Amino acid sequence: MKYIPTVVALTAALARPATAHYIFSKLVLNGKESQDWQYIRQTTRSECYMPTKWTSTYDNLTPSDSDFRCNLGSFSNAAKTDVAEVAAGDTIAMKLFYDGKIAHPGPGQVYMSKAPTGNVQEYEGDGEWFKIWEKTLCDESGDLTKGAWCTYGMSEFEFQIPQTTPAGEYLVRAEHVGLHGAQNNEAEFFYSCAQVKVTGSGSGTPSQTYHIPGIYNDSMTLFNGLNLWTDSAGKVKTDIMDTPIGDGVWK
User: Where is the Auxiliary Activity family 9 catalytic domain (predicted)?
Assistant: First the structure.
């Protein structure tokens, strides 16, 4: 497949900010990494790794916009993005561009949405989404601005496609939320969508679904008001539970 030149040009530049700003660009199948953007829709942002925020935005994109589904302009690249075949029950991963590592405090989630026509390359993600994976606090006594978060230092999100997932083509959306600026309504969202074809005989139905955008809003204290430098772990947990991030995952 072809690659947009700006991403190649960015590779050297990303060596410096890779741990501060990042984006999911690879799928890991059976322990083998794909090429960048082989199965993940590529954003058209000039600086692909920049976050989405409600204030101090980049490219005027906010979590209230339709491109919050899979990142700015990514649907324009859907048709030339390959579809990975996975079986229900398989464990796969979405990996950061240029071997980056997460160095912002905050939770990580993975959502899926089934293409209603059966062709994920034609699907914008405007249907229902369900959550299959999440990581929040791992050490409530730790530093809430760093390693208290399970995702801190991760280079990929590894997760299982639920055994009961019905066969079909899906978007799989990995998302990390940096909360270091939440006290100023500057929570930072880093996310991408992979295109997969799920095989098997699953017949489950998720009990909780969401729409993107709409899943989050800036009246939620987790994104607008939480202060990781002064608030307690108990406050963080309460604020998480007041958002869909606190909902259970479908298995």
Answer: 21-221
SS3 86: strand
pLDDT digits (tens, 9 = 90+) for 141-198: 999 999 999 999 999 999 999 999 999 999 999 999 999 999 999 999 999 999 999 9
How many Cβ atoms are within 10 Å of 78's Cβ, its own excluded?
21
pTM score, two decimals?
Answer: 0.92
Helix, strand, or coil (residue 97): helix
Contact 154, 164 (CB under 8 A): no
**Which domain, by its residues, includes 71?**
20-246
- Per DSSP, 213 falls in state T
Residue 9 lies in a domain: no
Domain CATH for 201: 2.70.50.70
**Residue 11 falls within a domain, yes or no?**
no
